[in-house]
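Colleagues,

For the teaching module next term, I've prepared a clean inverse folding example: a structure given as tokens, and then the sequence designed for it. I'd like students to try predicting residues themselves before seeing the answer, so please don't circulate the second half yet.
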């Protein structure tokens, strides 16, 4: 079972106001978010699975129509094969990954080759402010009356470690998309080992782009040194010998 929270696109409100979607359709959309894999944004389900969570008296056909509408407006991309029964994969378009190796990426369902080869893109604006927002949540409301206040609060508390490049003592390396991903993850770090965070960003970028990160020798050297410094110290033979009195 997933834990944590699910983020639902606010753009769906426009479709509710215009009448293209009903509150029933919104309920289906929310249930799919709650049941989806938080690490990928992919849901394996079907109309019967949704029906199992619905109030008594809900018809299977109504759920099927709701899924069809969500697919038609592009919020979901279904990979259902006609004639086959059981659960099937559905990609949630513009799903922001908040955990796992792809943290900081957004699923682009309609640019994905298939559900087995989903397309992920870097999210800069929403993830980069996570660190500042976590501070803002603990501050008085008068200090954080708007988003600009959050940015100022984050800037005021900045220190060398707030920049991954200053922390590593190297210049920025790699494509802009990689630097944005790494800097976003660094801004929202929560106590995990620094080497795991940086290594995870490299792995996520390579997985999303289908190629190796090249031209970053200084970054890989700095990462290797960081891993060595974070590794637990193994006592030597001399350390184990009793000291002479």
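(Answer key — instructors only)
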């Amino acid at each position: 079972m997933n834990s944590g929270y699910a983020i639902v696109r606010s753009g769906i409100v426009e479709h509710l106001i215009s009448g293209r979607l009903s509150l029933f359709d919104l309920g289906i959309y929310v249930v799919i978010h709650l049941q989806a894999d938080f690490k990928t944004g992919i849901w394996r389900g079907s109309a019967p699975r949704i029906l199992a969570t619905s109030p008594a008296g809900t018809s299977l056909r109504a759920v099927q129509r709701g899924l069809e509408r969500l697919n038609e407006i592009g919020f979901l991309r279904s990979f259902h094969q006609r004639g086959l029964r059981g659960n099937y994969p559905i990609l949630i378009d513009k799903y922001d990954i908040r955990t796992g190796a792809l943290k900081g990426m957004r699923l682009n369902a309609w640019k994905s080759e298939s559900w087995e080869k989903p397309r992920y893109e870097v999210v800069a604006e929403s993830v980069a402010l996570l660190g500042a927002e976590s501070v803002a949540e603990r501050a008085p409301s008068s200090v954080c009356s708007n988003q600009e206040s959050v940015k100022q609060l984050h800037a005021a508390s900045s220190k060398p470690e707030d920049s991954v490049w200053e922390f590593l003592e190297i210049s920025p390396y790699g494509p802009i998309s990689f630097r944005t991903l790494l800097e976003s993850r660094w801004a929202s770090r929560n106590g995990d080992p620094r080497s795991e965070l940086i290594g995870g960003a490299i792995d996520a970028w390579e997985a999303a782009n289908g190629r190796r990160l090249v031209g970053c020798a200084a970054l890989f050297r700095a990462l290797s040194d960081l891993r060595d410094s974070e590794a637990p110290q193994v006592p030597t033979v001399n350390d184990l010998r009793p000291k002479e009195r």
